[in-house]
Amino acid sequence: MIILMMIFCLLTLTATAQDALPLGDNGMVTFEGVVEVPKMPKGLLFENAKSWIASYYKSPRTIQEDDDMAGTISTKSMFRIKSEPGGTKPGGVINYTMDIKVRAGKYKYSISNLRHSDKTEKIGSGGKLERSEPLCGHKEMKEEQWQGIKAQTKSEVEKLIEAFKKGMEYTSPDDSDDF
């Protein structure tokens, strides 16, 4: 019986660790990666990033800073979440910062400063996602809701990253085109 309990605890800890949000060197939740794109010039990667931002986001004020010489772009945005995973009731928004750096043949993205805010006050605001307990406390937001918000955030950020990578892909001109 003791062995079964130990196995159960080990499986529970493993499952929890797999769902954990990635932490950067500074201890903040950070999703980042470097993508190699051989033979892509820096200028084209920079333009692809700006074009993707313009088509993906509704607000023209998403870009906070850009520097084509340094190859850097900093954006701020947010996405909506539900109060329960798979639910229909609004659960506030997740605000985040996305930094993009381009070099010839590669680019790096970093999504950080993730924090939950609910201005409707229906479930309370969780604050920074690094927190083990939501900012509003467990009296306003159940532990399951806080973990659900983190799980939804991870899923939404992974979708964002995939959309960004797709937007950064280079499509070569069709060789059969005479123009």
Could you list some keywords that capture this structure?
179 residues; alpha+beta; 6-stranded antiparallel β-sheet; 3 helices
N-to-C order of helices and strands: HEHEEEEEH
Helix content: 25-40%
- SS class: alpha+beta
What's the pLDDT, averaged over the residues? 83
Point out poorly predicted stretches: 4-18
Portion in beta strands: 25-35%
Shape: elongated
Taking the alpha carbons of the first and last residues, their distance comes to: 74 Å
How many β-strands, per DSSP? 6
The radius of gyration over CA amounts to 20 Å
Number of helices: 3
Outline the biggest β-sheet: 6 strands, antiparallel
Structural commentary:
- The protein has 179 residues and is an alpha+beta fold.
- Helix content is 33%, strand content 28%.
- Strands 1, 2, 3, 4, 5 and 6 form a six-stranded antiparallel sheet that branches.
- The chain is elongated and about 55 Å long.
- The N and C termini lie far apart (74 Å).
- The model is unreliable at 4-18 (pLDDT under 50).
